[in-house]
Every structure is written in C-alpha cells, then in structure tokens.
Write a structure and sequence with these properties.
Layout lengths: L4 H68 L5 H36 L7 H4 L17 H7 L1 H22 L6
Helix pairs in contact: 1-2, 1-5
Length: 177
C-alpha cells in the first residue's frame, strides 16, 4: 500500500506548477522590457530620420533655386527644374509619414508603460541619440544561457509537474483508504 506517495507527488506537482508560474511571470517581464526598449529605439530612430529628411529638404530647396536660376539664364531646360521640384516635394511628403510613425510609436510606448496617451512626450522632449548596444556582452556556456531563459525554465518545471502527476495517477492504481 502507498500511504503517502500520492500526497508527496501532489505536493511536488503543485510546487513545480507554482515555480513554473513564477517563470512565466519572469518571461512576461522580459518580453515587456524588450518591447519597451525596442519601441524607445524606434522613436529615437524616427526622430533622427525626421531631422535628416528635413535637412535634406532644405538642401533640395537650394538645388531647386539653382535649377530655376539656371533655367532663367538659359543654361538648362525646364526638365531640370521639374526634376528638382519633384524630388523636393517627394522628400517633403515623407516627413508627415515619419511624424505619424513617431506618434504611433509614442502611443505604443504609453500603452506598454500603462500610461495615458501623450504622457511620455515630456520624457522624450530631451534630445537623445539612438541607443546603442553595449560593447561587452556577458557570454557564458550555451546551456547556462538557455537555462536562464524564463520560458525554458517554465517548460522544464511544467515537465517536472507532469511527471509528478504521473506518479499521482500510478498511486491511484493501488488501494487507498
């Protein structure tokens, strides 16, 4: 007769299930942190792109003035002026698209942080550069890196809990009080 094995296995399964739930929580935190970092990087990248596109439009305005002046003086044809104007207007058309993308990314960041829309704008007003990855990254044995991943830990602990539940099912085959 197995008096206590069933209960011991039930406690083991519950304990492994609890730790697996904690690993799932850690996995959610890691995922949220990564998404916040990615969204912040996207915002900073879009700010740089807007700045560069605006500067490019100013350069193209000067090119258009030069093309118009050359056309007035009979050095070039109207085709050069038209091409310069088309290039300028296509560059100007990109700026609102980039600004809309930046606003969407800011709204996404607000959502990720659990804040109302527009609250992160004050934090983002300070001019910052695009974040870069650290030069040195801690490297370890690949199996240790896998073991530290919360999703891998959760899967391992879920398997342990299932094994313990198998023991409970086997104990049900024996007579009990």
């Amino acid at each position: 007769l197995d008096f206590w094995g069933k209960f011991r296995r039930d406690v083991q399964a519950a304990h492994a299930g609890l730790i697996a739930s904690m690993a799932d929580y850690d996995d959610a935190i890691v995922t949220l942190t990564a998404e916040v970092a990615r969204t912040y990087t996207v915002i900073r990248t879009l700010e740089v792109l807007i700045e560069l596109t605006s500067a490019n439009a100013k350069v193209q305005e000067e090119g258009l003035k030069i093309a118009e002046s050359r056309f007035r003086n009979g050095v070039t044809t109207e085709l050069d002026v038209t091409q310069a104007l088309t290039l300028l207007e296509s560059t100007r058309a990109v700026i609102p698209q980039l600004q809309a993308s930046r606003q969407q990314a800011q709204n996404a960041l607000c959502t990720l942080l659990g804040q109302p829309t527009g609250t992160v704008e004050a934090l983002l007003n300070e001019r910052k550069e695009i974040p870069t990855a650290p030069a040195d990254v801690a490297v370890g044995v690949p199996t240790e890196l896998l073991r530290r991943r919360p999703d891998i830990r959760s899967a391992e602990l879920s398997a342990i809990a299932q094994c313990a539940r198998i023991g409970i099912a086997k104990a049900d085959l024996y007579p009990s009080f």
